[in-house]
Amino acid sequence: MSLFNVFDVSGSALQAQSVRLNTTSSNLANANSISSSSGETYRARHPVFAPLMKDFGEQDPDVGVRVLGVVESQKPLRREHNPEHPMADEEGFIFLPNVNVVEEMANMISASRAYQTNVEVMNSAKQMLMRTLAIGQ
Amino acid sequence: MPFSFDSYLSVHQPALHLRAKRAQVLASNLANVDTPNYKARDIDFQAALKAVRGGQTAGMLRGTHANHIQPQSFISGYELQYRNPYQPSLDGNTVEHQVEMAAYSDNAMRYLANLRFLSGKFNTLRTAIKGQ
After folding, report:
1. How far is the C-alpha of B52 from the C-alpha of B14, rounded, in Å?
2. Which residues of chain A neighbour B27 with C-beta distances below 8 Å?
3. Residues of A with Cβ-Cβ distance to B17 under 8 angstroms
4. A9, B24 in Cβ contact below 8 A?
């Protein structure tokens, strides 16, 4: 019964989108984590998605998603001159994470929308299956 | 007169099968809405159904030797095609959320309609068997 595979596919998407939501929340939580050297500073993390093929045939109808890994953003850190700050280095600089809060909010909305869509897909697949099981009754 | 389920259920059985396959393809598109370089795919339902009913698969290769192999897609009876996006995104992804969602709901409704026809067929049979 091929409809059961819809649950695998949508389930993998739920997993991937929840990883994305998790990284977004880490990024937002650490948006103001100040440190005194560029090595210790938090850098924005983003997951990398890739299609998940069961076999490598081009005609495979179900293609899930997997998270290839989580990469740190290569954007430069923000460096501020603030000698009064307790974390300031000898020259009076503090380092702020390269988290772009607006970008993260957009990411969060996109991830939650995608999550909802996949839940709906699962729900209607479930309805289709239940009706199929009830055939002839 | 021999009774054949295949001819009794006529088009409804292969149609149901194709609808289920199409649901899978569209669910994959929706799952990969944020995957870079993923290309949205779909089944041309009418062509696939016609091919299945005619026993001939659309675009099937002509074999002139017993060892000639048909491509995978033609064995399964349908051909996956790539969708032409209205607004492809910068990361090479061609899935359009609203288009896929509309297609998926449409497909689900038609699947349920198909099921209704099929159960009607079975109810007819049951009535005939009971003779009441």
Report:
1. 7
2. 6, 9-10, 62, 121, 125
3. 2
4. yes
Prediction pTM value: 0.83
Nearest to B37 by CA among B78, B89, B73: B89
Q: Where are the domains of chain A?
A: 5-135
- Cβ pair B25, B82 in contact under 8 A: no
Q: Looking at the complex, report in whole angstroms how far the Cα of residue B119 sits from the nearest Cα belonging to chain A.
A: 5
Q: How many helices (H) and strands (E) does chain B have?
A: 5, 2
Tell me the pLDDT tens digit for each residue of B50-98: 877 766 555 566 677 877 776 555 545 677 889 999 988 899 999 999 9
Give the end-to-end CA distance of chain A in Å, rounded to a whole number: 19
Distance from chain centroid for Cα A56: 25
How many residues does the structure list for chain B? 132
For residue A83, CA distances in Å to A38, A39, B122 come to 16, 19, 83
Per mean pLDDT, which range of A10-19, A42-51, A59-68 is the poorest? A59-68
Cβ of A118: how many Cβ atoms within 10 Å?
A: 25
Distance CA A16, CA A115 (A): 9
